[in-house]
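**User:** I keep going back and forth on a fold encoding question. It is easy to fool oneself when nobody else works the same problem. Could you pick a protein and write out its sequence and tokenised fold? Could you put it straight underneath, so I can go through it closely?

**Assistant:**
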Amino acid sequence: MSNAGPKRVATSSAVSRRPARPRAGAASASPPVPPPPAPPPPPVPGGEAGEAALVARDPGTRQLTDPQTMRALAHPTRLALLEALAREGPLTATQAANLLDDSPGNISWHLQNLAKYGYIEETGTGRGRSRPWRLVSLGQRFDSGTSSSAGSEAAADALATMVVEQSYERLREWRAARATFDEAWRYASFTTHVLTYLTPAELDELAEEISTVLHRFAERTLDRSRRPPGSAPVQLVAWGHPITPNPSGS
């Protein structure tokens, strides 16, 4: 393990995951019933309450399978818009343009394209560029590397590449600006790089466990009233993949 940073180095709204493959010769069985989720924390006193604090209509994750739908999202401005709506809640084209330092006309065009493919929707209030838009689903999920369709595979790979590049850019921004953050944030931040040896089934199991940990505070993204004082947006990224073995097989 290599460590860097002040404390420890150990990484949607889009998630790319290869689905688990069935084990050879394994008997089919019903999946275990997961334990009931822990009750969400109470709203922060003085914050927004009820539906007004929710950033998405559907708190779940949407599975993307259509190539055209995935291609529609593979644009940096559209990914930035989904993030802005997740952080701020409903926004008009003008409000989003101010956040992203873009023109209302260009942002309006991107919002309409996102709505066309089911990523966002109007809240039902306002007119023209004064219409607020909100997320339909809190997150997106797409599978890369398993599709039988060449078009779906290419679209998933292009979207996955853009998401990874965006994550790297955000990391570079943090490293360049971390001296401007409070000591508590500099100390709490982390990066981890690990080399290990796993079977495909073990890697798949580990991916599910890591995903569960990363989504521990998902209710705070969905409901702005549950974001406690002192909290800030934090990027959490994880990926795991095999690497080319040495001639010895190690």
About this structure: The chain has eight helices and four strands. The longest strand covers residues 133-142. Residues 47-226 form a domain with the Arc Repressor Mutant, subunit A fold (CATH 1.10.10.10).
